[in-house]
């Protein structure tokens, strides 16, 4: 029998476009089911004539400083220059400029091109880069800023306000979701508690999820699901978390702003959720977004049986009345629906004795040790 992964039974929504394959593979190796719904997509500008013309202007009029905001953007710029036969001239030009990296990934891309950064931001934020330049004094200096998906007029305006001549360079841009219907379905799953976690890797992508929810009439339900913690909302760093923080939400953010750290903290949080697990007479029972795990075996559940089982787990072996179960049962109108759902639940888990009837009172889980009579 294959040993279940730590995330067996979990459903995780991934909103990222870039590097989504790495995230998906990592979560799937740990046993999770992944729903991939990119809320935006990266549209390369490598074949765009404006980028090539901008590169020629950089070569003809070398900048004093170049702000490298993303690794993918810097690599894309060099690759586009190479396609146009301009790579050697561009690299020679950049050698004479101060290269300022927004963080370690941007720094790594600079070094991979055979160049050396002059300085790198510790916080991995554009704001720190702007502060550093302002402190250094940039009056009269020519600065090129490699933009990261969205134009940032505020950043450029801040530098212009202290006397710099600033040019933005767009290597790629954010385009609309490749599959809006998939995004709408994932939002509905989040609102219904059908996923255990939703994971974001960019601020524009996070904002796009909120925007898509508003367009489909699910905004309030989405914010409620994220605010209550019913669904774990995880972001790779504080910048990515910004759109949620602006709403007073507190996403889970790792100490190190890396995909590996994000994967670890999501795994740790989901496997350490004692509020959704209980020891039963048949082994540990854990509630997941669209399933339960009983003694290491994943049991897919529909919304109704899952809602009833979650209420029983939360009660920890105490009796839950039929009216109380009716209140959590989606779309149900009378207690007969509770009885039908309990029967479906017993069939789904394959252990009918797990859910025990307490005459005239309701139902409870069999949490006593195996072999001990009720």
Task: Please explain how this structure is put together.
The protein folds into 3 domains: 11-39 and 177-272, Rossmann fold (3-Layer(aba) Sandwich), CATH 3.40.50; 43-175, 3-Layer(aba) Sandwich (Rossmann fold); 275-365, Orthogonal Bundle (Arc Repressor Mutant, subunit A), CATH 1.10.10. It has 374 residues and is of the alpha/beta class. Helix content is 44%, strand content 20%. The model is unreliable at 369-374 (pLDDT under 50). Strand 5, helix 5 (104-112) and strand 6 (119-120) form a beta-alpha-beta unit. It has a 6-stranded mixed beta sheet. It holds the Pfam family Trans_reg_C.
Task: Provide key terms for this protein.
Rossmann fold, elongated, six-stranded mixed beta sheet, Arc Repressor Mutant, subunit A, alpha/beta, 3 domains, 374 residues
Summarize the structure.
By secondary structure, the chain is of the alpha/beta class. It has helices spanning 20-29, 49-60, 71-83, 87-95, 104-112, 126-136, 153-161, 180-191, 203-215, 219-228, 238-245, 259-271, 303-315, 322-328, 335-349, and strands at residues 11-14, 33-36, 40-44, 65-68, 98-101, 119-120, 142-149, 165-176, 197-200, 232-235, 277-280, 283-287, 291-294, 297-300, 355-358, 362-365.
The end-to-end distance, rounded to whole angstroms, is 31 Å
Shape: elongated
Q: How many domains comprise the coordinates?
A: 3
CATH class of the largest domain, named Alpha Beta
Largest sheet, in brief, is:
6 strands, mixed
List unreliable stretches of 5+ residues. Answer: 369-374
- Using the coordinates shown, work out and report the CATH topology of the largest domain: Rossmann fold
Helix content: 40-55%
CATH architecture of the largest domain: 3-Layer(aba) Sandwich
Strand content: 15-25%
Report the strand count: 16
Determine the structural class based on helices, strands and strand pairing. Answer: alpha/beta
> What's the average pLDDT?
89
The spatial strand order of the largest sheet comes to 3-8-7-4-5-6
Tally of helical runs: 15
Q: Gyration radius, to the nearest Å?
A: 26 Å
